[in-house]
UniProtKB/TrEMBL annotation:
Recorded family membership: Belongs to the class-V pyridoxal-phosphate-dependent aminotransferase family. NifS/IscS subfamily.
Highest taxon of the lineage: Bacteria
One MF term in the entry's GO annotations: cysteine desulfurase activity
Keyword Magnesium listed: no
Protein name, per record: cysteine desulfurase
Record-linked InterPro entries: Aminotrans_V_dom (IPR000192), Aminotrans_V_PyrdxlP_BS (IPR020578), Cysteine_dSase (IPR016454), PyrdxlP-dep_Trfase (IPR015424), PyrdxlP-dep_Trfase_major (IPR015421), PyrdxlP-dep_Trfase_small (IPR015422)
Organism: Candidatus Vidania fulgoroideorum
Residue ranges of domain Aminotransferase class V in the record: 72-430
Keyword Ribosomal protein: no
Membrane spanning residue stretches: 13-33
Length: 465
């Protein structure tokens, strides 16, 4: 907790002096509190103890500090707190086995064996082969390598298919390859954020598609796509399937072989692992070209010295997240259910995206007549997101919400709550009380709220808002 770190800044003597001084001033200004301090700290004591006043002062300080400076992290879709077990493994390798994977000395060979073991572990957990795992700096690089690597693997111009609410690392990469003559078709998601499989079937009837890119779990609205069905369609029509599984790993069960997945990407920092490491799964038979040239690491597909400690962290994070998936999901479902139940009771409030086909970890919600950014400033001790944190802190309205038909004024009213395994019901209760109070205050000064209460439709003015 924060106060532990605060106290470490002071020596025991200076802390005692500080409390004594604070207590003296308090009792001088409010002499009647002397009796209260005594009772509070020495309820069971029959005799007065000289430690009673400092102890009571200390307790009251802690109570005030915890209550007034409570920090809550509800932004786990952006990044997660690293698991202590992961950190412990990483520190060990940073301190003891710091050799280069490419070196032929004893420590280099030791590292090589360990990294190979991690690849074997990941391949078993995801049902693939060891040689199909390529380590990258994260899912963004992995998505770039999958799309560009396949597009430029030969001189043939290819046709790609994706949806308009995919992650920016997919959409912007497709924009890039379009400038080189490749054709990309963008399908519209349904209003609940789900991809209509019929649209895919209709598109591939008329046009020969080489690869389809799908975001298994959407990072902004948390909806889950039917990858199993899409995988079967791709297999039957000899189309490669690229899945961005960044938000799916550790939250839903993943079987790469059963779902006919050809490319799969993920990052460690979304599953309580370190930032700056991820991987690309590429089916062995598929040929792609490398983006980075150098020493030929990772089967000559991703050159550069391998970050041993980060790979160790990635492996451990995947292992823990898959092993504890049931336990974590049960806990998060309970918190999510509590939050949704209480939040939708608030007047003029709406959940964005499918309520049925979604992970419990993600709640994207709009509060009428209040800017999401203003609400976040009001409750600044609670970490949330007003959109995707992957968009360089852009204040532009969410393209995901826009593309599923959410009105522009509702988009600006939206915030994203994303839960993780370290969150609790206590935090959820605190959040509900805090957000109700903040909404009440912000709506008091909002002319849009007055319009809503007077029955005036805001839709008429949505272009100006």
């Amino acid at each position: 907790m924060d106060y532990i770190f605060t106290f470490k800044k002071y020596s025991p003597f200076s802390l005692y002096t500080l409390l004594k001084f604070w207590l003296g001033i308090t009792i001088f200004v409010f002499p009647n509190l002397k009796k209260f301090f005594y009772i509070y700290s020495c309820k069971s004591s029959k005799k007065t103890s000289p430690l009673c006043l400092p102890i009571s002062s200390f307790r009251l300080y802690l109570f005030y500090h915890i209550k007034m400076n409570k920090k809550i992290y509800f932004d786990n879709a952006s990044t997660t707190k690293i698991d202590k077990r992961v950190l412990k493994k990483m520190f060990y390798y940073l301190n003891n086995n710091y050799g280069n994977y490419s070196s032929n000395n004893y420590i280099g060979l030791k590292i090589k064996k360990k990294i190979d073991k991690i690849k074997i572990k990941i391949s078993k957990l995801l049902n693939c082969k060891k040689k199909e795992i390529i380590f990258t700096s994260g899912a963004t690089e992995a998505n770039n390598l999958a799309i560009k690597g396949f597009a430029f693997s030969n001189e043939k111009k290819k046709n790609f298919l994706t949806f308009n609410i995919e992650h920016k690392s997919v959409l912007n990469t497709y924009k890039k390859i379009e400038s080189f003559g490749h054709k990309v078709f963008y399908l519209k998601a349904e209003k609940n954020g789900i991809y209509n499989v019929k649209k895919i079937k209709n598109k591939i009837k008329n046009i020969k598609i080489d690869m389809i890119s799908i975001l298994w779990v959407n990072n902004e609205i948390g909806v889950i796509q039917n990858v199993k069905k899409i995988g079967k369609i791709c297999k039957n029509n000899k189309i490669l399937l690229h899945i961005d599984g960044t938000q799916a790993l550790g939250k839903i069960n993943i079987d790469l072989l059963k779902n006919n997945i050809d490319f799969f990407t993920a990052s460690a920092h979304k599953i309580h692992g370190p930032q700056g490491i991820g991987f690309l799964y590429k089916k062995k038979k598929i040929k792609i070209c490398s983006e980075i040239q150098g020493g030929g690491q990772e089967m000559n597909l991703r050159s550069g010295t391998l970050a041993t400690h980060q790979i160790i962290g990635l492996g451990k994070a995947i292992e823990i997240s898959i092993r504890e998936i049931k336990k974590n999901n049960k806990k998060i479902k309970k918190i999510s259910k509590f939050l949704v139940k209480n939040l939708i009771k608030i007047e003029d409030t709406k959940i964005n995206g499918s309520l049925k086909n979604r992970i419990p970890h993600n709640i994207n919600i709009s509060f009428g007549s209040v800017e999401g950014e203003s609400l976040m400033l009001k409750i600044n001790n609670i970490s949330l997101s007003s959109g995707s944190a992957c968009n360089s802190s852009s204040l532009e309205p969410s393209y995901v919400l826009k593309n599923i038909g959410v009105p522009i004024y509702r988009i600006h009213n939206s915030i994203r709550i994303s839960l993780g395994k370290y969150n609790s019901i206590k935090e959820a209760k605190y959040f509900i009380n805090k957000i109700k109070k903040s909404l009440k205050e912000l709506r008091k000064i909002s002319p849009l709220w007055d319009m809503y209460k007077n029955g005036i439709s805001i839709k008429k003015f949505s272009n100006e808002i």
